[in-house]
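Friendly challenge for the regulars: who can give me the structure tokens for this chain first? No prize, just bragging rights.
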Amino acid sequence: MSSSSQFSSTLKYKLWRRRLSVSAPQLSVQRQVPWPIRLLMFVATLTVGGLITLWVVGRGNSTAGFNPVANLEQINNFRDQIEKLRTERDQFSSTVNAAESQINMERSSQQQLLMQVKTLESDNARLKEDLAFFESLLPADTGPQGISIRRLKVDTLAPNQLRYQLLAMQGGKGERQFIGNVQLVITAIQMGKSVMITFPDLKPAELDKFKLSFKHYQRVEGVLTLPEGTVAKTVQARVLENGQIRTQLSVNL
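First reply, four minutes later:
Bragging rights claimed.
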């Protein structure tokens, strides 16, 4: 046998042993699966997975006591309760509104009653004052022919406004009707000078406020408005008959 033949036999033997050894490379054979079959297998896998997921979720809800039908009934019950509460709320709101209206009416009535009470109290005070004047009357005539000013009251409402009240009386039996008028003379300081202002002026409406016509007594009151910057010092009230002074009375401010 030649050397080349011997070398070839030796090489074949080594290759044969290598194929039989553990380190020999593995040979795998893969079959080509058509794509429709692979698509069906993918859909089947998804379907099975979805069913398993639904089963697991349903199992969990059943374990937790979740019942769709029972929960729907509870939701309907809650809705009915909410509607009932809404109806009761509307009824209560109507009742409250009616009560508020009644309270407002009663409050308005109370305010009107308070105003009436104040008016009656004021009238009562005037009557008491008149009674005091009558009680102070003397049986004899007071002043010339029985005409007098029993009281004169002057209050300052504003720097240039005065409120006056006086009571003119006729003493004795008061058999005749006295006809005359009241005249008010204001002594004041105006622009640093002393001035005298007489009321009423020549306006007919003002003259009517100062007319007198009584047998026993007559109350005269009103508000006097002085020029701006005028400061009143004294007020003198006069009772005139036919332009003649019958009686007079002064007060200081």
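Confidence is low (pLDDT under 50) at residues 138-144. Residues 76-135 form one domain. Your move, everyone else.
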